[in-house]
Every structure is written in C-alpha cells, then in structure tokens.
Amino acid sequence: xxxxxxxVVVLAAGEGTRMxxxxxxxxxxxxxxxxxxxxxxxxxxxxxxRTAVVVGPGREDVAAEVxxxxxxxxxxEQTERLGTAHAVLAARAALEKGADDVLVLYADTPLVRPxxxxxxxxxxxxxxxxxxxxxxxxxxxxxGRLVTAGDELVAIREEKDxxxxxxxxRFCNAGLMALAGAHAIGILERIGNANAKGEYYLTDxxxxxxxxxxxxxxxxxxxxxxxxxxxxxQLAEAEAILQRRLRLAAMAGGATLVAPETVFLCAxxxxxxxxxxxxxxxxxxxxxxxxxxxIHSFCHLEGARxxxxxxxxxxxxxxxxxxxxxxxxxxxxxxxxxAHIESGAKVNHLSYVGDAHVGADANLGAGTITCNYxxxxxxxxEIGAGAFIGVNSALVAPVTIGKxxxxxxxxxxxxxxxxxxxxxxxxRQVVKEGWAREFRAARAKxxxxxxx
Length: 452
Ligand code: UD1
Ligand code: CA
Known about the structure:
Spore Coat Polysaccharide Biosynthesis Protein SpsA, Chain A; elongated; binds calcium ion; twelve-stranded parallel β-sheet; UDP N-Acetylglucosamine Acyltransferase, domain 1; 29% strand; alpha/beta; binds uridine-diphosphate-N-acetylglucosamine
C-alpha cells in the first residue's frame, strides 16, 4: 500500500452534549489518551500521507490537540452541522490537493486498529470507488444498514429512511469510509439532503458511485473495534475493551499479569520481558518498564522509567520525572517525583523523594523526606553514592549529602554534608535518673497537682 498516497479526513466536530461535559467529546480519554489521539495514532500507523481534521466552530482546544499529535495536520472548521458529507467537504482544500486514497474516520470511534484501516482501504487499490466498514452490533438500532448483493455494496440506508426489509438487515455501517481520491470530490458534491433528517449523508456516496458505473464494497470489522462513544457509559465500555486489548498485548510481550483484570495500562505503556505485575496496579501515561522488574500490588506509576531488575511496592507511587536505574528498590508507601535514583539504591519505607538525585547504592531509611517546597519554589536534593540516611530524616533543599556520608536518625538537615562525614542534627538526649519513680510518688500523694 505504501506506493499509494493516503489522505485521512477525521471528523471531530462531535459536541459533548450527551457526555454532560464542558470538554468536547473527542477530548475525553480512554487508556490515558484522548479519543482523537487514538484515531490519529491509528491513521499514522496505517500510513497516512496527509491528515485533515474537521472540528466544530471555534474549537481551538480540539485543534491544539490535533497539532500536538500530528503537527502538520490541516485543521478545518465545519461552521454549520449539516451532515457527514458536508463535514467531509469542509476539508475540501485538502481533498483538492489530491491523493490516491481518502479515508474518512470519526474521532469518537477510538478503538479502530491500523490493520482494519488497511482492510477498508484495500478495495480501492483493486479499483473500487467506495468502501464502507460493516459490523454486526448486538442492537442495530440507530445505525445505517449495509444493503449488499454478493460482494457488491448496493446502498447504505439510514435507519430513519429504511424500508422494513432494509431495517431487518443486521450488517451495519460503522461510519468509516474509504473513497478513491480521483472520484471523491465529484461524488461528495452531488450528495443532496432530501432525506428524513435533511442532512447531507456521506453514506449516499455508495449509490452515487454506482450510478456512475463505479463499484462499492463493504469490509467487515469486529463490533468491539468500531464502537462509537456518545456517553460516559460508552466511554467506560470503550475503556474496558481497550484495557483488555492492552493486557493481552502486555502478556504476549512477556509480562506476567497475575490478575490482568485489575491492572490498568495506558496506550503508551511499555513493559519489558519477565516483568511481574501483581494485582491492582495502575499505569498512567509515559511509563516504560525494563526487563525483570517486579511491581508489587497497589502501585501507581506515571511518567516513570524503570530499568531492569527494579522492584517497587507494594503501595508505591511513582510520579512524573521518576527514573529508577537497574536494581533500585522502592518499598511500601514511598512517593517519588522528578527523582533520578541510581543503580542499587534503596528507598524501602515511608519516604518522599522529590526533585532529587540519589547516587548508586545509597540507602534512605524509613521516613526520609526531601523538603523540596517552601510554598514558592522547588529546590533540589543531591544524595551522593553510597550515602546512608538514618530514619525519619528531613532533608531541607537545596541541600547536598556527600558520597558515603552518614546522616544520623531523626535529623533535620539544612546545610550540606561533606563526603564520608557524619551529620547529627537533633537535640542531645537527656536522662534523669529516678525521675519517673519520683513522679509517680508525687502523683500518688496529691493526684490533682502537676509535678513542678
Ligand atoms: C452515522 C452514519 C451511519 C452509521 C453511524 C455509525 C451517516 C449519514 N450515517 O450516523 O450510517 O451507522 O454513523 O455510528 O453518515 N459529524 C460532523 N458534522 C456533521 C455531522 C456529523 O462532524 O454535520 C460527525 C459527528 O461528530 C460524528 C460523525 O460525524 O463523529 C457521525 O455523525 P452522527 O450524526 O453521529 O451520525 P449518525 O447518525 O450516528
Ligand atoms: Ca453517531
């Protein structure tokens, strides 16, 4: 297919009304990325030469998301909502530049895979002018029906315009369509709006092409893949389908998911081989996990890179900017953010390590806290290789603990500690012999009176 140029037109003018949301529908997320991002990623994987996106009037937020994902995409506004064919023609300037193949996709159909786009496009190479993608939903209500005769697609009939016989057809229009670039504008221009909704239906392209003696065909997809999202319930259904797909891919790639249905992945999560993920782990965006990493239960990761042999959790929270080099151990109730922790270092219990660099083989005792924020700015903590931080220590940034240095338990460290030094920063212990015995005796004599 790579010898043929491909223009993809993505219709993203769907409002968020049925979502009960301030956010436009296509900016809602599944598996950590917007629906629009999923569709654009699939088109890129399917080999789009150019991308045009049609957005609703004044939708700068949607246009910005398009440019973030595909910087050279052309964005068009559909000023009035007059139907799917009218929406495609909003991208007329892109169509006029010409392409061998044109694919029309909906941004609210985020689960479509690149392979399926290839399948939809394939008939064009064989000479078809129009190809539609069909599927058999459990409930066909509301979908256009694909009227076929053998391999030929005769018509797509919108439910409101369908005869009872056509309505009985279960093979439905997913909405995605492929058009031969040479005929696309000619066909689209002749689509009228004499139908039950008074809209310019893209689906009429089938009958117009056939009237010209051109051929139209239908490809077939799984219902799971072409599920459209119009409500929060359907958004959750799409999430469930995508999570299942991502879990299967993670396991096929060599990761053990002990209880896959309790692990939530992002579309961009990267897992190495022989990774073990225990139950109830959530991966946010931007996580990359090396080989032989063990993630114990109840961890939450986001924007983190873990190299081979790292162990985290249970109950670890890794926030953006976390880099754990090979063999690092992060234990229970530890939070990291913008922290680079080098090979072999250990942060095993109840710590916060933020805006920090921790050298190789350092050991941070239970309750070590980097005090990185004073209400205004963020400050860095530097901990040298092999340093040992005693439990319950507060490191007040900006501060540097030298290589191989010791910090005594319960310290509040406000100034730098040189390499190989010991810092003690707590008040000296006072012992009063017999004090407790005298206290009890005094209390027994006059219970109400505090001891002086
Ligand atoms: C459309 C199809 C129908 C198919 C169904 C699958 C047509 C005429 N019908 O119907 O055969 O079974 O999708 O879900 O194409 N849009 C615009 N501008 C418009 C109108 C629509 O951008 O003026 C976009 C919408 O945001 C949406 C998509 O096109 O993403 C589909 O539009 P919608 O009105 O939902 O079409 P359906 O009636 O569902
Ligand atoms: Ca729809």
